[in-house]
Amino acid sequence: MNLFCLLLLTVNYKLPHERPRYCTMGLFDFFSKEKKESLDKGLEKSKESIFGKISRAIVGKSTVDEDVLDELEDILISSDVGVGTTVKIIKRIEERVARDKYTGTSELDSILRDEIATLLTENKSLDFKDSFETENLPKPYVIMVVGVNGAGKTTTIGKLAHQFTKRGKKVVLGAGDTFRAAAVDQLKTWGTRAGVVVIDHGMNTDPAAVAHDAVKKGVEMNADVVIIDTAGRLHTKVNLMNELSKIKRVMQKFLPDAPHEVLLVLDGSTGQNAVIQAREFTKATDVTALAITKLDGTAKGGVVIGISDEFKIPVKYIGVGEKMDDLQVFDRAQFVDSLFKK
Length: 342
Description:
Shape: elongated
CATH class of the largest domain: Alpha Beta
GO cellular component, one term: plasma membrane
Oligomer: single chain
CATH topology of the largest domain: Rossmann fold
Subcellular location: Cell inner membrane; Cytoplasm; Cell membrane
CATH superfamily of the largest domain: P-loop containing nucleotide triphosphate hydrolases
Keywords: Cell inner membrane, Cell membrane, Cytoplasm, GTP-binding, Hydrolase, Membrane, Nucleotide-binding, Receptor
Function: Involved in targeting and insertion of nascent membrane proteins into the cytoplasmic membrane. Acts as a receptor for the complex formed by the signal recognition particle (SRP) and the ribosome-nascent chain (RNC).
Structural class: alpha/beta
InterPro entries: AAA+_ATPase, P-loop_NTPase, Signal_recog_particl_SRP54_hlx, SR_rcpt_FtsY, SRP/SRP_N, SRP54_GTPase_dom, SRP54_N_sf
């Protein structure tokens, strides 16, 4: 039975006209009932916005025709799924309606749900993987965190530190955002709350030196994870690129393969502005994973789908609330289930 569940999860298997089936036993117990409830609540505004608009669009209509698809296209774009991704989804729905002879508008939400789940599967999104485990990772595993001021970068680092330490991991933080007022103090406060070591040189100091010393401390204390904060805003893209490149070079003098991960934090509540930020940062540095925050305060949850599709970079974490554990490992099946839950 466990092997069968694993296969279902791997391929996101669904019977026709049915919602995705999930296995909650054994290996995948880390996605608890409490986390699912938190995810449902965090995506409630986005769900209500999308469903409400779809319901209004199909009132009095019995078939999925061109007018219904035009309405659906507008709904997805207004939900910040993005134009390119929306066009792709609509094309798939058109093909599926023609192929499978779907005609009833009552089936539209299930078709849409299935196509979004498939799209996320294709876009390297993580699924049923506890990203707070480090057994098979380099030690220390160095994460460089980037993103604009206000996206929730420092808060995300604090929550990551908390969740790593909760699993018994040794963590070191590097207060590398040395240009923003109170950024260092804010990270030190999070470090105290999480019970982890914070390396800081104070304000207006060299962030690359902070990163070097944080990695050095991580090696000395045999830490599992080192997380480096970086400046959220520099004057030009060239400055940003140069600063991040310098931080990498300095870390690599001590640990040649650092950083092992570059995590871009985006504010999901800003909708398409988050997409613009992603474009700029992916040009400036080699982003390997995404964290999309503040989804609980917005109806723009569709931006997760658009960003995943455009950049083909794994969405690793999503923020769905203020509590420490409300930074969740992104699970595409659970995300789609919450977004379309009736």
